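Give me the fold.
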Amino acid sequence: MVQRIYLDTNIFIHCGLSQLDQGKAKRSKKLLEQISQGKYEGVVSTLCLLEICEVVRGLAVEVLGVNSPADWKAMISSTIEFIFKNKNIKVIESNPEERLGTSKIKDLMYCSVVDDAHRMIVKYSGTTKEERGKFVHKGVGCVDCLHLALAKMVECDLIATFDRGFEETRIEVEPLIIQDKVW
């Protein structure tokens, strides 16, 4: 049986903006290639698509100095293409037919995902650490808990990410920390 892997947004960010970190881009593309070949089944959510838009635009403008909306929109499109060009990646939450029959069941299902994400936010609070004169959070983030709840809902075996914050949540969905994976 093929393992189902939920793909964290950062996998696509490193593919689309490979100039930020060539090593992470290479590893991300290798994982997507293995998914394309059928070694894994990839899963992303519409939340991932929204995050790609937000993160790519922010990095394009603030880090790469891309000031033209046409240019950063093209960067967003080319990043999202990594999802839609791969026949073995399924986008969840994008098709009303994927949902159960009635609107009440639909609402309950969505509510249960949000409730599960909230439970994880409370359970996995992480730690704070002082770095360069200011405190930073170390651990899984709130949006990542929603990704985890979605991954659990569709019964993913792993969540592929570069974010070590997922290590504390391995009881929920086993993290596949890409920088540790040797291909």
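The CA atoms of residues 5 and 158 lie 5 Å apart.
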